[in-house]
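Amino Acid Chain and Its Fold in Token Form
===========================================
Structure side: the spatial fold of the chain, written down as a series of whole-number tokens.
Position: the record begins directly beneath this header, with no further notes in between.
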Amino acid sequence: MLLKSGGGDLLGQVAKKAGTNQSGAEDILRNLGSAMFGQVKGRVESSSFDSSGLEGLIQDSKYADMLDAPSNHYNNNKMQQRGDDLLGYITGSREGSREIASQVSQKTGVSTSILKSLLPMLAPMIIGSLGKGMLGGGSSSRSSGGGLMGMLDFDNDGSVIDDVAGLAMKFLR
């Protein structure tokens, strides 16, 4: 879903910002997306984090709609700031963002500064992907009881690990 968002516009934008070709951009997007989905999973499973705010963001259709036309927010300063704010929800801190950039840099060979510049652009897409996946997957009825954990536990096995990993793989194809 991320690779195809906006008819490939997101992929083109990542390639442009990273100074790479489409294949390189796909690698960056897969790795950043996977790391960010992992961060969402970790935040949801953490007993020290109130996930109700994150749940509201995921259910907000404006982020899911961004996947259809991501170029509408690339150069919008307000959306860039919102991307930074969403990144805080996803990673929990600036240090979390740095860790993602560092890990993905080691895997892709792309500099951490370029990767850090991509994170605010991708944060709304990650939130939108989760929302689109849950609402499109008919799971909106799960929002009652269990909060975000309940919403992400698609197979009702009590663990969201397998479900979020499955979502991440689905969205990164």
Remarks:
- The chain has one domain: 5-171.
- The mean pLDDT is 76.
